[in-house]
C-alpha cells in the first residue's frame, strides 16, 4: 500500500480554544501571557492581534504599546499539550494512526483511509470544515512523506494535496524553514543568500554536510522520501479491532445493532480462523458532535459466537445516547484467549461447566447487572470449614483435592459463625432446642458430634464439635460447641444451613 500522510497545523490553537470557551472575545485582539524570568511574555495571539504586529515572544509591555485595549489572559500550564491530545483522539475517526506534532500540530497516517470519504480532496475538506465548525482555524497538507506534508501545511498554499512523487516541485519554492531545520542552520542559510529549498537541494551532499551538518541532509531526505519517517500513534492499534464509518449518521438502536453485527461478523470470523475467542470487548461510537459513547462486555470463557456476543452488547445498547447521530463505530477486543473447541457429548445430556449454554447464561446475568457477582468454588486442602474452599480464578481451574464427602456439609456456610443459646440434656449430647435471632427452634433429629481440630500452625484456638440438626419444620442447621463443655451456654454457634 502506498504511504500517504496528512499534517494539520493549528496556527491559533490556544487563542481559538479561548474564544470557543469565551465567545465574547472572538472579535477583539487577545493574547496569552506567561512569566519568563519575572517578565511577562506573549505566548500566543489571535489573528486580530497578529495583524497589528504582535507575535509570540514579544514582551507584554511592547504589545500594549501596539494595542492599548489589548485583552491579556494568563495561560494555563500545559494548555497546548492538553488541547493537542484531545484533538488527536478526536481525529482517530479519520485514521487510527494519529500522533502529536507539538507545539501546535497533528500528524496523520492516512494510508488506505481517504477512499472511505470519496478521495483525498473530500477527506481533507471534511477534516478542515469540521474543525472550522468547532471554532478552530486549521491548515492541512497531504503528501507521500511526513516532511512534505508538514512543509505544505505550514508554508505552502492553504489545504494543498501533493500528488505522488511530486515532492520536489512542491518543496523547492518554499522557505528552508519548511524542512523543520534548527534556528542556527536557518540563520546560516540566510547569511549565504539561500532563501528557498531549491537553492541548495541539488548542491553536492559533501558541501551541505560540511557547512550545515548531517541534520539538514536528514530533513531533506525525509521530505523527499529518501529516508523513512514514521507516525507514532497516541494509541497503539490493537491487533483485534474493526472500524465501520457511516455514510449517514446513525440515530436508532436498530441501526447501532446492525452496525455492531457487521463488525462482529468480521472480527469473529478472524478469531475463529485463529482458534481464539474474546474475553473482553468494547464498542466505541463517535458522535457527530465529537463526543464518544462506549459500552463494553466481558465473558467467562473465550468465545467467537456472534449471536452470543451480540446478545451481551444488545443489553447495553440502550445506554448509548446517539444525539445527532453516530458517524463511526469501532469494535476493540482488549482480551483474547485460545478458545478450546467443545466436543458434543453424544451419549447423554449432562450439563457441566464445559457446556457453552452454561457459560453464556453466566455472561448474560453479568451483563444485565454490573453489580452481579458470580463465583465458582473449588475445594482447598484444609479441614477447618472456613478454609476448606476457595474462589476459582477461572471456570476451567482444576481442583487439587476432592470435596469432603465423608460428612455432610451445609449448602450455605456463614462467613462468620454466630452465637446461639442452646439447651442440652447432658454436656456431650446434641441440643434439644436453641435460640437464634429471637426465634426458638426445637430439634427432633441430630447427628454428631464431628470433632474438627483447629489448624494450630495457622492460628491458635479451641476445637469444635459439630452437629447436623433438624427442627420440627424440617429445617436443617449446622451447629457446633467451641472447646470442651465448661458449664457456659455461650460456647455454641450456628455455622451453616442445609438445603
TrEMBL record:
PROSITE patterns: UMUC (PS50173). It comes from the Bacteria. Signal peptide: none annotated. Residues 19-73 form the UmuC domain. Gene3D superfamilies: 3.30.70.270, 3.40.1170.60. Keywords: DNA damage. The keyword RNA-binding does not apply. GO terms for biological process: DNA repair. Belongs to the DNA polymerase type-Y family. This is DNA polymerase Y family protein.
Amino acid at each position: 500500500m502506498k504511504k500517504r500522510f496528512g499534517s494539520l497545523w493549528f496556527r491559533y490553537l490556544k487563542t481559538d480554544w479561548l474564544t470557543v470557551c469565551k465567545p465574547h472575545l472572538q472579535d477583539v485582539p487577545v493574547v496569552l501571557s506567561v512569566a519568563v524570568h519575572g517578565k511577562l511574555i506573549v505566548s500566543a495571539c489571535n489573528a486580530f492581534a497578529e495583524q497589528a504586529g504582535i507575535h509570540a515572544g514579544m514582551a507584554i509591555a511592547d504589545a500594549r504599546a501596539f494595542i492599548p485595549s489589548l485583552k491579556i489572559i494568563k495561560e494555563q500550564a500545559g494548555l497546548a499539550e492538553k488541547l493537542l491530545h484531545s484533538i488527536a483522539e478526536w481525529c482517530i475517526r479519520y485514521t487510527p494512526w494519529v500522533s502529536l506534532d507539538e507545539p501546535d500540530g497533528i500528524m496523520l497516517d492516512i494510508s488506505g483511509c481517504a477512499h472511505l470519504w470519496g478521495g483525498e480532496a473530500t477527506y481533507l475538506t471534511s477534516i478542515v470544515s469540521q474543525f472550522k465548525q468547532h471554532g478552530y482555524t486549521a491548515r492541512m497538507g497531504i503528501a507521500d512523506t511526513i516532511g512534505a506534508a508538514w512543509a505544505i501545511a505550514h508554508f505552502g498554499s492553504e489545504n494543498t494535496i501533493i500528488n505522488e512523487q511530486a515532492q520536489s516541485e512542491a518543496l523547492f519554492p518554499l522557505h528552508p524553514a519548511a524542512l523543520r531545520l534548527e534556528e542556527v542552520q536557518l540563520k546560516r542559510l540566510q547569511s549565504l543568500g539561500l532563501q528557498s529549498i531549491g537553492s541548495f537541494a541539488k548542491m553536492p551532499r559533501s558541501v551541505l554536510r560540511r557547512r550545515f551538518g548531517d541534520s539538514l541532509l536528514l530533513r531533506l531526505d525525509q521530505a523527499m522520501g529518501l529516508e523513512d519517517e514514521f507516525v507514532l500513534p497516541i494509541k497503539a492499534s490493537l491487533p483485534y479491532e474493526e472500524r465501520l464509518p457511516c455514510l449517514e449518521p446513525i440515530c436508532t438502536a436498530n441501526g447501532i445493532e446492525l452496525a455492531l453485527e457487521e463488525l462482529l461478523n468480521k472480527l469473529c470470523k478472524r478469531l475463529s480462523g485463529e482458534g481464539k475467542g474474546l474475553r473482553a470487548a468494547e464498542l466505541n461510537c463517535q458522535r457527530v458532535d465529537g463526543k464518544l459513547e462506549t459500552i463494553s462486555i466481558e465473558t467467562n470463557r473465550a468465545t467467537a459466537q456472534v449471536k452470543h456476543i451480540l446478545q451481551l452488547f444488545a443489553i447495553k445498547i440502550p445506554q448509548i445516547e446517539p444525539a445527532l447521530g453516530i458517524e463511526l463505530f469501532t469494535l476493540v477486543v482488549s482480551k483474547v484467549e485460545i478458545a478450546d473447541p467443545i466436543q458434543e457429548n453424544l451419549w447423554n445430556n449432562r450439563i457441566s461447566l464445559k457446556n457453552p449454554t452454561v457459560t453464556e447464561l453466566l455472561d448474560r446475568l453479568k451483563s444485565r447487572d454490573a453489580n452481579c457477582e458470580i463465583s465458582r468454588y473449588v475445594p482447598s486442602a484444609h479441614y477447618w470449614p472456613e478454609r476448606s474452599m476457595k474462589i476459582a480464578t477461572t471456570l476451567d481451574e482444576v481442583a487439587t483435592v476432592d470435596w469432603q464427602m465423608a460428612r455432610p456439609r451445609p449448602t450455605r456456610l456463614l462467613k462468620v459463625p454466630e452465637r446461639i443459646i442452646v439447651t442440652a440434656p447432658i454436656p456431650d449430647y446434641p441440643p434439644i432446642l436453641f435460640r437464634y435471632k429471637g426465634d426458638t427452634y426445637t430439634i427432633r433429629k441430630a447427628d454428631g458430634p464431628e470433632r474438627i481440630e483447629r489448624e494450630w500452625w495457622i492460628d491458635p484456638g479451641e476445637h469444635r464439635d459439630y452437629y447436623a440438626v433438624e427442627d420440627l419444620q424440617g429445617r436443617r442447621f449446622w451447629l457446633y460447641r467451641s472447646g470442651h463443655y465448661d458449664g457456659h451456654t455461650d460456647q455454641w454457634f450456628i455455622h451453616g444451613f442445609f438445603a
